[in-house]
Amino acid sequence: MSVKSEHGTAIGSAGVSTEKKLVSGAMSVDLAKEGQRAVQAPLGQALLTAADRDDRIVGLSADLAKYTDLHVFRDAFPDRFYQIGMAEQALLGAAAGLAMEGFVPFASTYSVFATRRAYDWLALDIAEPNLNVNMVCALPGLTTGYGPSHQATEDIAILRGLPNLTIVDPCDATDIMQAVPQLIAHDGPTYTRILRGRVPQVLDEYGYEFELGKAKLIRDGADVLIISSGLMTENALEAAKVLQQDGVDVAVLHSPTLKPFDSEMVLKEVARDRLILTAENHTVIGGLFDSVAHELALEGVTKQVTPIGLPDEFLDAGALPTLYDRYGLSVAKIVETVRGRM
Amino acid sequence: MTTEFRHTTISPERIVRVREAAFRIRQNALVEAEVQGQGYIGQALGFSDVLAALYADQLNLDPTDPEWEGRDRCLLSIGHYALAIYAALVEAKFFPQEELKTYATDGSRFPMSAMSTYTPGVEISGGSLGHGLPIANGMAMGLKRKNSTATVYNLLSDGELGEGSTWEAAAVAAHHELSNIIAIVDFNDQQADGKSTTMLSMEPITEKWESFGWETRRCDGNDVEAVLANLIELRELEAPRPRVLIVNTRLGKGVDFLEKREKLHFMRVAEEEWSLAQKQLHNSFADESAETDELREKERSTTEDGGRA
Ligand SMILES: Cc1ncc(C[n+]2csc(CCOP(=O)(O)OP(=O)(O)O)c2C)c(N)n1
Ligand SMILES: [Mg+2]
C-alpha cells in the first residue's frame, strides 16, 4: 500500500493552509453554467416522448435511475420500469433477456460500472447476439471529481473493440434528445455517454442536427481543424471564439458517433491543409484520437495530429474546474495547446 | 434493548467511553460535511456508533504507524462513507483535528471517496461498491499464512448486498474457513434510488448469510452496548467460520432534524442549519448521558440493596 507522495504520508504533517480551496462538487454536478441555455434531464424527456408512441420501450436501472435521468421515465411509466438494485451484471443480463422477448430496453448506470463491471454481459449477451439494447450511462470521462472509481476515462477504449456495438458521445441536450429516437430505430446495441441534470444546449444554434453515424462540421475555419466529440465539442467551439479574436480561424468537426466512425467526413476535412487536433473527454489511448489516426493510416495519409484528451493516468480527485485545467480539457487550455502548435 | 450475551460482560465505563467517542465522531463528521454543504452525512451519523466501537475499542491500530504489520485490517468497502472514516481516524489520532476542514478540497488527504492512495489508515480504495469482501478474503488468507492473529474487518452496506461479488466472496470465505474475517453490514434501509426494502429487498438478510456458512448476528447499530457485545463475541468465538454482524442504523442519528427529514442517499444541509445540527447533536448526547447516569445509579443501588438482603 503506497500513499501518493504529493498527499504526504507522515502523521500530523498536514500542512493545513487557511487559504480557501476549491471543493469537489457533488457526485453529479450540473454541467450547465449559470445563465447558460440548458435542458433539464434531456434523456428522460426524449424517452417519454418516444415511450408514448412505442410500448416496446422499457427502462431498467441498477440503483441509479435518479442519477441518470431515468427516474423521469420510471415516474411516468412505473410498470415499464425495472429496478434491478445495485447489480450491474444482472442489469445488462436482464436487458438482453427483455430484448430477446421483443422489447427495447434502456438500461442505465454509470459508465464505469457498465464497462468495467458488466463488460462480459455487454459483450456476450448484448453485442454478440446484436440485440437492440440501449445502454445510457452517466459520468463519462472526467465529469466528476470523485476519483478513478467514478471517472470513466477509458470506457470507449474498452468498448471500441466490440463488434456490433454503436458508441455515441453526445455534446449537449440537442444531441441527446435527437439521438434517442435514432437509438431506438437502430436495430442493434448502443452505448451512449449521457450527460444528466441541467444539460447545456449548444449545437442547435449552429443549425446542427444529430445523425447516427455522421460527423458534422459545426463551424468552418481556414487555419486549424479540431475534431471533437462529447462535451469537448462545446469547449472546442468556445476555444474557437477566443482564437478568432487573435485572427486564428478554427474549424470544429463534431463526431458524436465514435463507432461506426464517419471516416469519409473525417478524411475529407483532414485533406485540407490545416493544423489538426482531436479533442475528447477520454484517455488519449483508444478513443477519438486513435480512431482518427487509424483512418489516416489506412488511407496512407501522413499528417500530424495533436491529441487533446486525458493523460494515461488514474486521475486525481478534486474540483472539476481544477481538474479540467490540470488535464488540459478546459477552454483556456485548448487555446493554449492550439497556440503552442501554431 | 440489551441483548443477552453468553461470553461478555462490558463495564459501564467502557460503554461510556465508546459513546463519547461516537459523539465526537459525529461532531467531526458535521465539521467535514459543512465544508461541502452536503454529502453522505446521514450515513456518517448513522454509522458512528459502530465506528466508535471499532476505532475506540476493538481495533488494534497504531496511529503513528498506519502500516504496522500487526494491525487489524479495517476495510471500508463503502468508499462513499469517506467522511465517516476520516471522522473516526481523527478520533483515533491518525490526523489532527484541523485537517477535517480540508475535506473534499483540492490537494486534501481527505477526498470525497476514501482511497488508500490518499489517506494513511484507509486500507483500500473504495468507491466502486462490492470490492471489500473479495479483498478481505485475500488478506485473511495472507494473515493466516503468516500466522498473524490480526482480524480483517470489512464494512459494507445493504446496497452492496445487491452485488454478485459480495456473495461470491461470502462463499469463498466460508469454504476456506476464514474465521479471521468480521464483516459488518450497515443496514440503514437506504440506497441511491430509495429505501432498500422497497427498492429491491434482500431480506431475509440474516438467513442468507447463515445459509452461506457465516456465523451471523444482527442488532441495533445505534445501541453501543449491543454492537460492542456482538463484536467482542464474534471475535472471541471458536468456530471455523467467517463472521458477520448486521447492524440496523438510523440515517442522521443524533441530529433530530436530519433524522426526521426525508431520508436521502445524498443529503443537502442549508448554510444556516449547521450550527443547529451541532446544537441538536449536543442535546441528544446530553440526554443520552443523563440516561446512562440514571441507569448506572439504579444499577449501583440495586447491587447495594442486593448486598444487604
Ligand atoms: C458498483 C457500483 N455501482 C453503483 C454505484 C453508485 N452508488 C454509490 S452509493 C450507491 C448506493 C448503494 O447502497 P448503499 O451503500 O446502501 O447506500 P447508502 O446507504 O449510502 O444510501 C450507489 C448505487 C457504486 N458506487 N458502485
Ligand atoms: Mg444503505
In words, what does this structure look like?
The complex is a heterodimer of chains A (342) and B (309). Chain A is α/β, with parallel strands linked by helices. Chain A folds into 2 domains: 3-200, 3-Layer(aba) Sandwich (Rossmann fold); 213-341, Rossmann fold. Chain A has 12 helices and 14 strands. Chain A has a 7-stranded mixed β-sheet. A 5-stranded mixed β-sheet of chain A has the order 9-11-10-13-14, sandwiched between helices. Chain A has a two-stranded antiparallel ribbon with strand order 1-8. The model of chain A is unreliable at 1-16 (pLDDT under 50). Chain B has a single domain (12-304), classed as Thiamin diphosphate (ThDP)-binding fold, Pyr/PP domains (Rossmann fold), CATH 3.40.50.970. Helices cover 47% and strands 11% of the residues of chain B. Chain B has a 5-stranded parallel β-sheet with strand order 2-3-4-6-5, sandwiched between helices. Chain B has a two-stranded antiparallel sheet with strand order 1-7. In chain B, helix 1 (12-36) runs antiparallel to helix 2 (41-58) and helix 1 packs antiparallel against helix 10. Chain B starts with 11 loop residues before the first helix and ends with a helix. At the A-B interface, helix 4 of A face strand 1 of B. The structure holds thiamine diphosphate (TPP) and magnesium ion (MG). Thiamine diphosphate (TPP) sits between chains B (40, 43, 78, 80, 127-130, 157-160, 188, 190-192, 265) and A (63-64, 86, 113, 117). Residues 157-159, 188, 190-191, 196 of chain B line the site of magnesium ion.
- Residues in helix, % of chain B: 40-55%
Find the CATH superfamily of the largest domain in chain A. Thiamin diphosphate (ThDP)-binding fold, Pyr/PP domains
- CATH hierarchy class name of the largest domain in chain A: Alpha Beta
> What gyration radius of chain A follows from the Cα positions, in whole Å?
20 Å
Bound molecules: thiamine diphosphate, magnesium ion
Major beta-sheet overview of chain A = 7 strands, mixed
- What proportion of the residues of chain B form beta strands (DSSP E)? 5-15%
Uncertain runs of chain A: 1-16
CATH class of chain B: Alpha Beta
Number of helices of chain B: 10
